[in-house]
Amino acid sequence: MKVLVIGGTRFLGPCVVEELLGRGHEVAVFHRGERERSFGSAVAHVHGRVEEVEALAEAREAVRPDAVVDMIHAGPETAAPVIEAFAGGVTRTVHVSTAAVYDPAAPYPMAETAPLAKAESAPPELAARIAADELVLATAKARRLPAVLLRLATPYGPRDPWSREWYFVRRALEGRREIALPDGGWPILHRGFAQSLAWGIAQAVEARLAAGSVFNLGDEHVVSVRELADMVAEAMDHRWEIVPVSGEALVHPFRQPRHFLLDLHRAKARLHYRDRMKLRDALEITVAWLCQHPPREDWAPPGGEEMFDYAREEAVIARARKGGGT
């Protein structure tokens, strides 16, 4: 099968390309040319902007794909050109979205039928993803596009540009013996190892699925933030004491007020989705990569500029132990 991957040069895209190549597919990558990723002579590169229908139409004529994987799916401004360029011309399109589109207050585990977040009150980037999902599903329902929509748990693994595990890895490297976790770190955050997610995306390319099918993808084995902290420390042969603190005391890349847990039954039944690696092994690979490729000194997710302010953390820990909250 010929597969065109749109936006296959960043963190998760190369994993998808490599998975498709490993299955014997002929793969081409459509991207802007700003991050040229070498996959060898087996992969063709087509340059252009996904917002431009003409560029996508040229890629369609040059590659003549049987299937398309849209790794960008950032909003209607990218989803609409993909729909226009490939409607009626391919046997499958797979659109990679995020599980963050679900209403965070919805009962968990969240199935594919769970209510979505309110676009009018969501951050602009998330509202755009919600609109892209709705556009793709409406087009599939109208039988204009053989689309499958995937909603991914938070990805992690080597080359992750966010590398949230660095919050723990750096502390272990610097010998921290105490670590403060808001709310004790007990909420579960559903995540997905990059290779497992890529395998699920490839399954969606190959499976016989009805247009408009939606699937959640993420790790089968999920843990709390507290368990994650201990597993990262164990992978580094480090030990620390976890100190529960107020949820408002510290900025934290894994912070959330409640569990965020996806229902994977549909993907497991119809895509035969499974973890491709044990969680402990996936974390060890991720941690080893971070130790060899530490992020820049100014690393921080949005709003997390003080994540390594140890003096503040120690003060918060001292107040928590005295029963003073924040």
Task: Report what the structure shows.
The protein has helices at 12-22, 53-63, 76-86, 124-141, 166-173, 194-206, 225-235, 265-270, 279-292, 310-321; strands at 2-6, 26-31, 43-47, 67-70, 92-98, 147-152, 154-156, 178-182, 191-193, 213-217, 241-245. The chain has 10 helices and 11 strands. The protein has 2 domains: 2-152, 3-Layer(aba) Sandwich (Rossmann fold), CATH 3.40.50.720; 166-189 and 221-257 and 278-321, UDP-galactose 4-epimerase, domain 1. A 7-stranded parallel beta sheet has the order 3-2-1-4-5-6-10, sandwiched between helices. It is globular and about 65 Å long. The termini are far apart. The longest helix is centred in the middle third of the chain and has 18 residues, at 124-141. 35% of the residues lie in helices and 17% in strands. With 326 residues, it is α/β, with parallel strands linked by helices. Helix 1 (12-22) packs across helix 6 (194-206), helix 2 (53-63) crosses helix 3 (76-86) and helix 3 packs parallel to helix 4 (124-141). The relative contact order is 0.13. Helix 1 links the parallel strand 1 and strand 2 (26-31).
Give the number of domains: 2
> What sequence of helices (H) and strands (E) makes up the elements?
EHEEHEHEHEEHEEHEHEHHH
Count of individual helical segments? 10
Unreliably modeled segments: none
